[in-house]
Specification:
The protein is α/β, with parallel strands linked by helices. It is built from 8 helices and 14 strands. The protein has one domain: Glutaconate Coenzyme A-transferase (3-Layer(aba) Sandwich). 22% of the residues lie in helices and 28% in strands.
Length: 259
């Protein structure tokens, strides 16, 4: 039951080239930065990534982009990353844009054994009808487009069929975790982490605070250890290393200066 591994390199050592990886985080909040670095250092390539976005320039999953390690990504938001845009428009990267709630449910469905589900999201758009550009050619033309999705009528409304999104591996970051893999996430860092972990056949969690079994209140656990196969305890420095995507500060009025 002790799922703790000694190093990040050991945690990702069996991820093969061509694997699909569900990666938690939203923007750069709650991203498994240490595990991403280990994958980058190992040079694991031809990857298919499932994530809300692909980091920002030089941060998070963008480190894999910079090394040309990603072949395809399924995401809901791809802004804040110039290299991502360059590779996509240049025909170097295949991108399947997916509505954010749909992406979350596709991951969750994989974790609970649902092969597919119906949703109204995307009806009347290219999400349902097909034609979204997945990959561009070098000359700027569209090389691959999305295909139409099956639809059905329920109680007078049309819904489209979305497939679950199981991944070979999942990498996530938690605030606290025990040796059995039970996890707690802190505030907004919870985001896509639980559903990504659920979707992975092998889920790896880096935890900021490792505790012993029994120390976590069972009623407070956000994700039970049955979904986690490996736990990596971060150092104090690694746990404290968290980026801020957009730093915004208030200019205090002169009369408040110094308070």
């Amino acid at each position: 039951m002790d799922k703790v591994v000694a190093t990040a390199a050991e945690a990702v050592a069996d991820i093969p080239h061509g694997a699909s990886i569900a990666s938690g985080g939203f923007g750069i909040c709650g991203i498994p930065a240490v595990l991403i670095d280990a994958i980058a250092e190992a040079g694991i390539n031809d990857l298919e990534i499932y994530s809300n976005n692909c980091g920002t320039d030089g941060i998070g999953l963008a480190k894999l982009l910079d090394r040309k390690l990603i072949r395809r990504i399924i995401a809901s938001y791809v802004g804040e990353n110039k290299e991502f845009a360059r590779q996509y428009l240049g025909g170097e990267l295949e991108v399947e844009l997916t509505p954010q709630g749909t992406l979350a449910e596709r991951l969750r469905a994989a974790g609970v054994g649902m092969p597919a589900f119906y949703t109204a999201t995307g009806i009347g758009t290219q999400v349902a009808n097909g034609g979204l550009p997945w990959r561009y050619a070098e000359d700027g033309s569209v090389a691959i487009t999305s295909r139409p999705k099956p639809t059905s009528n329920f109680d007078g409304r049309t819904f489209l069929l979305e497939r679950a999104l199981p991944a070979d591996f999942a990498i996530v970051r938690a605030w606290k975790g025990d040796r059995h893999g039970n996890l707690l996430f802190r505030k907004a860092a919870r985001n896509f982490n639980p559903v990504c972990a659920m979707a992975g056949r092998v889920a790896i969690a880096e935890v900021e605070q490792l505790v012993e079994p029994g120390e976590l209140d069972p009623e407070s656990v956000h994700l039970p250890g049955i979904y986690i196969q490996r736990v990596l305890a971060l150092t104090t420095e690694q746990a404290a290393d968290k980026g801020i995507e957009r730093l915004t500060v208030r200019s205090d009025p002169p009369e408040l200066a110094g308070e």
